[in-house]
Amino acid sequence: MRVLLDAAPGRDAGRILLVMLPAAMVRPEELLEQGFVAAIRARGLPVDAAVADADADYYLERGIGERLAADVVAPMRTGGYRRIWFLGMSLGGMGCVAYACRHPDGIEGAILLAPFLGTRGVIGQIQDAGGLARWQPGAAAPDDEEQRLLLWLKHYRADDPRLPAIHLGYGADDRYAATSAMLARQLPAERVLSIPGAHDWQTWLRLWEMLLAKDLFLVEA
C-alpha cells in the first residue's frame, strides 16, 4: 500500500503517527491539497501524517484491516513510533474500525469523519431494532466483515482502557448522518461533534479543525 509521509518539523521524541485514510475514489494527495495536514502544522503539533492509498479494492477484498497492519502500522512501529492514531473519512472511517476491531491495542485513538459503516440494508435493520445496543443479529459468519465490524461497535465501551478512543464528527445534512447518529449513542457526548454541513470536503475540514482544537493528542491513553 502506497503511503505519503509528512513529518512534523523537529525531532520531538514523543511524536505521534496519524494514519489518514481517504474516502472512496480519493487520492491520498487530495488530503494534503485540501488542507488536512496543513491544519495539523498550523497548530504546531508533533504529529507525523501517513496518508495511505487505501482504495476501494482493499475494502472489497475484505482485508483492509490486515493490510493496514502489515503495510502501514508494522513498518511504522519498526521505525520507532509508539503512539499511533487513525483518521478516516467516509469509507476511510470503516477502514479505521476494521483495523481497530482486529488490533484494539494497536492504536491510541480513531477519528471518524462521516463514516460509512455498512450497507443500507444492514444499517436499516439496526435502526429498526432501535440502535446498536438493541440490535441482536447473532454471531457473525467468518466471511461477513460488515456484520463483524458493526458487532464490534455494538460492544464498544468508551470507558474500557484496552480499547482505542473513538471520536466522531459529521455534518447534520450528510448522507450518512443517521448512521453517525446511531454510532454517537455508543460514545460519550464529548467525543461527538455534529455541525451543519454535507458529505463534502468543506464540512470535513471544518470538523477536523474543530477536533484539533480539542487537543486530542495531548492526553496519552
Describe this structure in words.
There is one protein chain. With 221 residues, the protein is α/β, with parallel strands linked by helices. The protein has a single domain (3-218), classed as Rossmann fold (3-Layer(aba) Sandwich), CATH 3.40.50. 38% of the residues lie in helices and 18% in strands. The protein contains nine helices and seven strands. It has helices at residues 28-33, 36-42, 56-60, 64-78, 91-102, 120-129, 145-154, 177-184, 201-212, and strands at residues 3-6, 16-21, 47-52, 83-89, 109-113, 165-171, 192-195. The protein has a seven-stranded mixed sheet, with helices on both faces. Strand 6, helix 8 and strand 7 (192-195) form a beta-alpha-beta unit. Helix 5 (91-102) packs across helix 7 (145-154). The longest helix is centred in the first third of the chain and has 15 residues, at 64-78. The protein is globular. The mean pLDDT is 90.
